[in-house]
From TrEMBL:
InterPro entries: Mn/Fe_SOD_N_sf. This is 5958_t:CDS:1. One of its GO terms (cellular component) is cytoplasm.
């Protein structure tokens, strides 16, 4: 897990910095002062110079996505039994799972199928659920 994170995270971060640092030093300082965080930079893409807008969107968005994705993964616990998981789920949520999916095992199958088909996010889940595939 750390291998993927370190390689991808650093790559996006380096590319984003290269994009911003490719500007004149005065322009870079102005951009950093105007948008001190990556989130502010991404929220204000329309204010960036046209020639760096696409790269900032791609690499900045990738960095935010990877930070969010890897922050939501948890350690795999293969010895955990199905009933132990059910004990940790609130009764109202467990009832909803049983109504919509029959049981927890069926929900897991659908999440894995969605993740394999649609990428690392089990789409249409609220809250988002990160699954490393």
């Amino acid at each position: 897990m750390h291998y993927h994170y370190n390689i991808l995270h650093k790559n996006y971060e380096v590319k984003l910095l290269e994009t911003l640092r490719g500007r004149k030093i005065e322009e870079e300082s102005k951009i950093e002062k105007q948008f001190p965080t990556l989130e502010e930079l991404m929220r204000n893409l329309e204010q960036l110079p046209e020639e760096i807008k696409d790269d900032v969107r791609f690499f900045g968005g990738g960095l935010i996505n990877h930070n969010f994705f890897f922050a939501h993964l948890t350690k795999f616990e293969p010895k955990r039994k199905e009933h132990e998981l059910e004990d940790k789920i609130s009764p109202p949520l467990l009832n909803l799972i049983q109504e919509k999916f029959t049981d927890l095992k069926e929900l897991k199958k659908k999440l894995v199928k969605s993740a394999l088909k649609d990428g690392p996010w089990a789409l249409h889940c609220r809250p988002l659920i990160a699954i490393d595939v």
